[in-house]
Each structure stands twice: as C-alpha cells, then as structure tokens.
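Work package 3, deliverable 3.1, input record:
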Amino acid sequence: MNIIRSKENKAVKSAKKLLQKKYRKDTYLIEGFHLFEEASRSGAEILETFVTEEFAAKFPEAIIVTQEVLNFITDSKTPQGLVAVVKMNNDLDYEKINLNKILVLDGVQDPGNVGTLIRTADAGGFDAVFLSRDCADVYSPKVMRSMQGSNYHLPVYSVDLSELYKKLKELKISVLASTLSDESISYKEVEQKSGIALVLGNEGQGISQLTKNEADVLVHIDMPGQAESLNVAIAGGILIFNFI
Amino acid sequence: MNIIRSKENKAVKSAKKLLQKKYRKDTYLIEGFHLFEEASRSGAEILETFVTEEFAAKFPEAIIVTQEVLNFITDSKTPQGLVAVVKMNNDLDYEKINLNKILVLDGVQDPGNVGTLIRTADAGGFDAVFLSRDCADVYSPKVMRSMQGSNYHLPVYSVDLSELYKKLKELKISVLASTLSDESISYKEVEQKSGIALVLGNEGQGISQLTKNEADVLVHIDMPGQAESLNVAIAGGILIFNFI
C-alpha cells in the first residue's frame, strides 16, 4: 500500500490550498464520512478522496495518507479519517429551480449562522437558499460543518442580490425581509405561506439598503422580553417554521 | 497613575484563575462595557474592575492595567478595554421567582447554544432559565458572550433537575419536553401557553431519562424537509416563540 507521508505531495498541497477562500473557485473540501455519503448520494462530483490507512479497504479509489497529512488538509480540531475534494455546482439556472419558498441571506457574516440557517431551511422544507456575495462563504470548512450536508438536499447559490430580486419580481414572488423598523409588521400578520422569499440580514447591520428598497413586506418578530435582539439564526428559525 | 504591568500582580492572578471553571465558585468574569453596564444596572455586586489606561478617568475605582495584562485575563480574541470580577447569585429561593413560563436546559453542552438559548428566553419574555449540572457552565466566558447580558434580565440557575421537577409538580406547572419519539405530539397541538416548563436536551443525546420520566408532555417540531434534526438553539427559538 502506498501511503503518502509528505505534506509536499502535489495532491496534498492542492487540497490544502482549498482551506483558503481565494483558491476555492471550482472545488472545495468536505470532511468526514457522513458528508462524503451525502455528497455521493446527491450526485456531486468527488474529484479526490484522502483517507487514513485504517479506512483504505473501504475506499479503494482514495489516496492513503498518514493522520498527520490528513490533519494538514483540514482545519477541524477533531479530524475524522476522510477529506475529499468536491466540484462546485456553479451553474445557476433559475428555470430549473423551484422558487416557491426560498431563503435569502443578505450579508450574514458568521459561518455558524450561515450553516445553521441553511440546515434550518432544509429542515423546514424550503426549496432553495440564495446568499449575497458578502455572506460567509458557503464552501468554507466552518459553514460546511454547520450545514451538516443540507447543501446536498436543496440548491444553495451565491448570487448578485439585485439580479435575484429582479427574477423574483418577474415570478411574482413576495419578498419578505426581516427587520426591526417602524414600517415593519409582525410576521404573524403575514398570511401568505408560499410564493415567498424570506430575507435575513447581517448580524449587526440588518438588511441592506437594496433589500429595504426591493422588499414587498418588512416583517419583525415581537419580543416581549428585555433582550435587544435575537441571534439571526434564531430569528430565521422562527420565521422559517412559521411559513411551513 | 498606578498602572499594573505585571501578570504576577495578586489581583490579576486571582482574576485570571476565573477563566477556569474549577475556580468559579462565588465569582466570575465579565468583559466589555456593555456587560459591565448591564451587571451594574441589575444590582450585581462587582468586586473588582480592570481597565486599560484610556478608560481610567471613566472608572476611578478600577485597577488600571496594560493592554497586555488585560488580554491575559480574558479568553476573547478581540478584547475590549474592561474586565470585571462579579459575585455570583447562588441563592435559589423558588418562592421568590416567577415560574409561570420557564426554560429548562437538560445537558446542553455547547456554550454558544446555552448562551443563545438564555438570550432567546429573555427575548421571549420567559420568567427564568434552569440548567442541569451537566450543561455548559453559565459563567464561562463563552456563554457570557453569547448571553449578551440576558442573565441580568431574568433569573438563571444551575440546579439539580430532580429537585426542580419536584417543585414544578407541587406548583402544577406542566413540563413539556422537546424530543423526537413515537410518543411525542407536535408542539402546535399544545394549547397551554402559561404555567409551562419547556425542556430542551443535549445536542446529540436529547433529553435525559429523568426528563422523559418526569415530563407531562413530549413535544416535537415537524420537519417537512430532509435535514435529520434542528440545532437545539433553533428548536428552542421556535418553541419559545410559540409559547409567547
């Protein structure tokens, strides 16, 4: 069995680069058996798989590496025995996606929030998630971990928000943006449960000016207590499950 | 102005110890001006305050330290100019607390989840939060950061769950425990909105056997999508805001 022990190995070095956003153009890393299975099942193209020796028999196509080399190509504190390089799906064709109930993230910065929101949209049976370009990168290892494979259950795209809003207008989909303002209404007053795009904004700044301009309805969550705000993922969870 | 430059200073060394759970018996650390204000306003006893030189004039009672010394007594990656030692409130008297609508955390391990859930209970106007002894420590710096001062808005206690359940039975408060089992009903079927204790379980294992035995109602959140589960803080947010 040929075991790669050197961090200078070409395939290892290429994979390592994918920990940095600037190198993630067409490919990204996944870690662990669960995500590998989810990716395979969804038909995602897995270009390279690295496993430690103990899993070699299970993955005959994989490159066998030492634990040290495997640790080198992940940023996880508790690395599992598998890392794979997966091809991105960058071809967005609005005609091929169900847009009946979608989640839009407008500048959500924290990778944990982005991942959790995509996982929650998946749990809630939403049809797709769109992220503005200034959100945390969907393909970062941290977002990958908190999504728990939900990106393989529903389409997730990074987009130009103004183009998305244009498309949604054409399709007569109502844009509901979450905010705390004088013009907003309680989400409980919204009767429409489909044909909606739910928009959540940045952790500190809220929704962008573009979203404010383009939204059909501004909604808020009434808070009877003393906390000044809700975490954006919590607000998203409450709203998503209100619309199922 | 006397500026402490040494990490060997007695007050500095005592404060530093509070980063470790084993030393947090009666006191804990808070960081930043916002939490300091919240603590002061709530009447919490602030035993010692450390600030950097630039804030000395605003805090005449504080110990002035260098930025390096301040960084030494916090585990934050982006330390602010203030750290304070605060006295815990360990005196639990059930007679003095409103128990009309409470949140119970049963073995929630992640500090971010614990903090976010307490913040969400606060936002939702819940009356108190109780944590089983095996939850992440409420007084840890990470939980403190994600609570964002909500522990100064509502009572938060670490308790023996069996004693709590005994008390709740006496008071005829319904224990609703979140779980995914054959015996659970959808949370939407629960009509009662007060006199309730909502229990959330561990991230991996769910609620404990004790909670299963003591719960009056087991509730779940229907998930029309493909994700296997919801993050516990998201589930908590959905449930808390259902009961307001």
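The mean pLDDT of chain A is 95.
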